[in-house]
Amino acid sequence: MPWTRHYKKKGNKYGAKKTFFGGYVYDSKLEAAEAEQIELRILAQEVESYTRQHRLDLYIGESRICSYKIDFRVVRTDGVVEYIEVKGLPTEVWKLKWKMTQALFDELTEGEKAILILSTKDGRTVVLRNQAYLDAQ
Q1: What CATH number does residue 90 fall under?
Q2: Using the 8-state DSSP alphabet, how is residue 107 labeled?
Q3: Gap between the Cα atoms of 135 and 19, Å rounded
Q4: Domains held by the chain: number
Q5: Which of 54, 99, 104, 109 counts the highest number of beta carbons within 10 A?
Q6: What angle is formed at CA 118 by the lines to CA 70 and CA 89, rounded to 5 degrees?
């Protein structure tokens, strides 16, 4: 009998379970649940559209430091844009990119009324509102 090695398929090292919703596979149940809530908001005509894994390029001066893919960019019917990050277990790299995103949020969202939202298993928290949003209030 030939020697074979049996591998046990490992899950996500942080315990997240990939979840299928609306034709897409999401990295966690929490992220899929957020997508479901956005779809319900579309049906309620609160949201016009959304994109998944929206890329933000983080620059300091003229230098591109890194990119950050925020989980959802949601355009509401009132014109406000929500940037939603769904987070289970924060890693050190994520913490750094999140701080940079917060610091650069006005620049990243120039020309739009925008809100930065952190969604966790404990609920949603509005982290920041950009200057254009504050000026419109």
Answers
A1: 3.90.320.10
A2: H
A3: 39
A4: 1
A5: 109
A6: 85
Residues 6+ apart with CB under 8 A from 59: 65, 104, 107
Assigned token pair, 5: 């090695």
Q: CA 50, 54, 59, 64 torsion: positive or negative? A: negative
- Which tokens is 41 given? 């908001």
Whole-model pTM: value is 0.85
For residue 31 the two structure tokens come to 């992220």
In a domain, 88, yes or no: yes
Polymer length in residues for the chain: 137
The two structure tokens encoding residue 105: 């949020």
Read off the tokens for 127: 């982290």
E strand or H helix at 38, and its extent?
A: helix 29-43
Condensed to tens digits (0 to 9), the pLDDT of residues 10-45 reads 656 566 678 888 888 888 899 999 999 999 999 999
Residue 87, SS3 per DSSP: coil
